[in-house]
Specification:
By secondary structure, the chain is of the alpha+beta class. 41% of the residues lie in helices and 17% in strands. It is globular. 31% of the residues are buried.
């Protein structure tokens, strides 16, 4: 689902150090927190944003998650940063990662890590896969229960290593995406 990190450019000065790393029970305030960030980004980006979506585990009602809102901003051409990057950074975010088809912004090190903003190409694989996974999880409560149990097990093992925690979920996510692709074909799902 994600590009390999060795193909990514992590920007100097964007490191955050050791942020708290936990999985929390679903919080019904997460949609409102997304809406506040959506409004803030929409005002800053204007027509540069084709769409702004809530993705990741906090976008799935009832799913346990790291209490960080994942916002996906789709733009016409992610490689042409001029129309969107400075505007996105004007919301108080910093660019941490530049990889093929994706830019990753988050609050600066002095601020709480409460949001991750993913900028991707409209109509591309990054956008599609995140929306598909979100919608599949929303439609399949048992898969959500299994995912929550896995995340709680993994956070207990990797609570000091954010990257290892994320990497250890990869097989589950890829298997779920394969099931989601079949579901999308059967139901006519569209991003």
């Amino acid at each position: 689902m994600h590009a390999r990190r060795d193909q990514a450019e992590v920007l100097p000065g964007s490191a955050r150090g050791a942020d708290p790393h936990e999985v929390a029970s679903y919080d019904p305030d997460w949609p409102a927190r997304f809406q506040a960030w959506r409004d803030r980004l929409a005002a800053a980006l204007g027509p540069a944003a084709v769409r702004i979506d809530h993705v990741g585990s906090t976008s799935v009602p009832g799913l346990a998650a790291k209490p960080i809102i994942d916002v996906q901003v789709s733009v016409p051409d992610v490689d042409d940063e001029r129309p969107y990057l400075c505007r996105a950074e004007s919301t108080g975010l910093v660019l941490q990662l530049r990889e093929r088809g994706h830019r990753f912004l988050l609050p600066p090190a002095a601020e709480p890590r409460d949001v991750h903003v993913h900028i991707c190409g409209s109509g591309g694989a990054w956008e599609h896969d995140h929306l598909l996974l979100r919608d599949y999880l929303r439609a399949h409560p048992l898969v959500c229960e299994n995912y929550a149990a896995l995340k709680k097990e993994l956070i207990a093992r990797w609570h000091h290593d954010r990257k290892a925690y994320g990497d250890s979920k990869t097989d589950f996510v890829l298997d779920t995406l394969a099931d989601a692709a079949e579901w999308a074909m059967a139901t006519g799902w569209r991003a």
